[in-house]
User: Fold these one by one.
Assistant:
Number 1:
Amino acid sequence: MGSLNLPTEQWAQVVEKVGGPATYKRIPVQQPGPDEVLVNVKYSGVCHTDLHAMMGDWPLDTKPLPLVGGHEGAGVVVARGSLVTDIELGDLAGIKWLNGSCLSCSYCQNSDESLCKKALLSGYTVDGTFQEYAIAKAAHVARIPKGTNLEAVAPILCAGITVYKGIKESLVRPGQTIAIVGAGGGLGSIAIQYAKAMGIHAIAIDAGDEKRDLCLKLGATTFIDFTKSKDIVADVKAATPDGEGPYGALLVAVQEKPFQQATQYLRSKGVLVCIGLPANANLSAPVFDTVVRMINIKGSYVGNRADTTEALDFFARGLINVPYKSIGLSQLQNVYDLMHEAKIAGRYVVDTSK
Ligand SMILES: NC(=O)c1ccc[n+]([C@@H]2O[C@H](COP(=O)([O-])OP(=O)(O)OC[C@H]3O[C@@H](n4cnc5c(N)ncnc54)[C@H](O)[C@@H]3O)[C@@H](O)[C@H]2O)c1
Ligand SMILES: [Zn+2]
Ligand SMILES: [Zn+2]
């Protein structure tokens, strides 16, 4: 194994029981296995998924507690296993939700790596990036170009990849309109900019003046406040040129209701892309309408390695300005509290040095 000088202990945020809170404490620095790298995480974005993981919201077990969350980690490679030859010590790298996958099952062969049954999930089935030193499979770490601002790029590693892939899955084309539901949050605010960069009009749906101002500043064509609108379906349709509704809807909200509404305002042949993962939520739609209006309903789950490279390339070209606020890793629980109340416009990024 090759490595730079490493400490034996580090600061981390550790979840010790379901429901939290996360505890800021010293833990040992781990060594990477033969096909892994150790990344000195400088900054990590805080995704709503981290909060779902701590709260035990999903029908999918985490690794046995204690768990270190986090999966938008941007940093520097400081150690690599003996089999790793294509990333150097000192290179910039990103740890994403998909920490590793088997690379040989039929899903991996088809580049649907997120569907791999042996996938390792950062901050969920393996310890993640809310620590100073985190491990990932070398094949899966994102290659980040030299000179990149690690604080600004961190949210691309989950939010960016996920919404970029989701917009592609929506099949919405340049010149057409997409509805982004949950547009003022982390995924949503970044989705507005990918849509804009791809030449797609975005109808942003969320709540409150701060999120409205942010969405419009980031390039949304229209903002609809779901707490004020008397008829969301009518308002969304009215925001499209022919009144028929958008070609696609990207659901990044953390409540069930908007998933049900979306099939009603999509234009015929429209595509509903489900990305948000509210706890215990179900999705139903009238069969008759779905058939005769040819509505498509699909899920989209992060992205593969090519999506990662492409999403980072949009960032590198200056097309995506992640709206983030920075805070010390020690303050993570405060971010979770704000997130739980839907009070975060954009993304929080934690700095692992404080
Ligand atoms: N599918 C995937 O691969 C994937 C990847 C990352 C995150 N996620 C999930 O996406 C969701 C969003 O994550 P985030 O980090 O952006 O969360 P966030 O808390 O930053 O944003 C969620 C937003 O949804 C808004 N919202 C709530 N109810 C709404 C409603 N009825 N209509 C419109 N907006 C509403 C909130 O006001 C908030 O702004 C989470 O459930 C997360 O787990 C999925
Ligand atoms: Zn995430
Ligand atoms: Zn696989």
Number 2:
Amino acid sequence: LVLDEAAAITYLEEYDRLAADMSYQYAEAAWKYETNITEETLANMTEWSLKRSDFNYREAKNASRFDLSKINNQNISRLLRKVMDIGTAAFPDTVKLEKISDLEGEMTSIYSRARGCLNTTTCLPLEPDLVDIIANSRNYAELTAAWKGWRDASGRNIKKLYPEYVSLLNEAITFEGKYKDMGDYYRSSYESPTFENDVKALFLELAPLYENLHAYVRRRLKEHYGADKFPSTGHIPAHILGNMWAQDWTNIYDLVAPYPDKRTVDITKALIDQNYTIIRMYKVAEDFFSSIGLYKMPHLFWEKSLLVKPVNREVVCHASAWDFSNKRDFRIKQCTALTEEHLLTVHHEMGHIIYYLAYKDLPYLYREGANPGFHEGMADIVTLSFQTPEHMKKIGLLDAIPGQNDTEGDINFLFRMALSKAAFLPFGYLVDQWRWSVFRGETKPERYNEKWWDLRCDFQGIYPPVERSNADFDPGAKYHIPGGTPYISYFVSFVAQFQWHKALCKVANIAGPLHRCDIYSNTIAGARLNDMLKMGSSRPWGEAMLKITSGTSGQTDKLSVAPLLEYFDPLIKWLQENNKKYNEILGWDKKNCPNFLSP
Ligand SMILES: CC(=O)N[C@@H](CC(=O)O)C(=O)NC[C@H](CC1(C(=O)N[C@@H](Cc2ccc(O)cc2)C(=O)O)CCCC1)C(=O)O
Ligand SMILES: [Zn+2]
């Protein structure tokens, strides 16, 4: 162990170039696979995944020559630690590493090519067909067929691969002795020993908001579908909430709006009426980011992105944003459709690209979110402005906005926001509760589905419309499980984005209630946001949180639900009053899940 700081700096400069190039090669291989699913493109991606692991393995060895106790420069030691933090790549058994990559590719391929059958003759892909049925059908039986059909075609066929995937990941990640299991490694990206308890506390603080929304929506859905469809336990059937996973309830707004006679905001209709093109959706999003002084899309973005579902080949339709680590090439892959939901997703994916652009000149190792939740928070933050009636009117997608003293219109707007931002919270929280319990070995393969429905019934207060058992594998019907991508980042994002929205509206001196604030064309807000984005992961994320919130009443280096609850406060009061008026009993039997047949 020799080699002082000067040698470390030289080494890191060389590493930076090689790592960025390796990352580019892997991204290209992954892109070729996701935009053209074949045996060959899967094999090529696996090959590059192995090359990348091998590169990481070798460089971690090289970096371990430096004695960190002799390196005083915080930045150099942080970079060296990141070179050595290589996760499963530290595992020398490349045959098993290849198996992990193959299993992940195989499960993603099954998921992306699955066709859910409604009956013996009609089988449909998830996007756009089954998603559209769950979003728009109001026929209980049709909804049940789409819900069950999707799970039979996806989760059921992925089930047989998942146990080996879990045990190989755990074997690889525990090899070096730094991590207890794969969940422990996932959580380490938050650099906090109390992270797991912190998010649990945040979730419990948000429960009253969710329970009031759940009680109100349950009552309104009973009116539509009949009380006989609702068990005495208080749960809501999982398939009538407008979303295949009941994680976003916006699509049933027309069924449950507080003041239905008010003009319901129908952006999808406006997009169609105004002959919007797919490209124009991306130009509108780009215009938002450049209006606050951030960035326009580089020309390669328009040249290389895949923005519509191809007709002649299988692709991974699940939307995603890509950083090719060469400071020039950034892409979105999305099977974009002309709907409001897709317009929001366009803003989300472009939000990721803006983060990539903000930190593109940092050392390669720092080109990530301050933590994964920050990357998701940045992806979502502009939608809090974009969806306001003021903004919708500004870009001509809405002709009338609720006046200041139009409380009914205001409640309708807040309610619609809660159908996505509040309804999501228990789901955003529970996906990794399930996955962490699997990685810990608390949940064995024979109880995978039981644990899933325990959590879904307990935290979301929903239940399966058709009988489930441990022969099913419903977690496998959610992209991120076969895809192996963490999910708690979305829960963190939903908390953080409201903290940032409050801070940015404050520094931008935008008056009025938080839920009507639109930072569009406000370069002061944009500059403050950019100051945080430019940090990448160069400093612990508490400093990034402080960077955005400093000088405002929400100043903190921690996650806090206060801004989210402040944003929804008028609605929470309205829901509590309405639920009391109808003597609604909040909540559900958390320990008894209807329709689950434990063996
Ligand atoms: C190369 C790569 O993988 N890149 C990363 C980005 C990065 O890490 O750099 C990436 O593109 N990930 C894809 C993922 C896609 C979507 C998603 O999966 N969303 C969640 C949860 C959710 C729900 C509501 C909401 O408002 C926001 C999120 C779901 O649909 O359940 C689907 C459409 C929206 C976002 C994404 O963009 O986060
Ligand atoms: Zn995202």
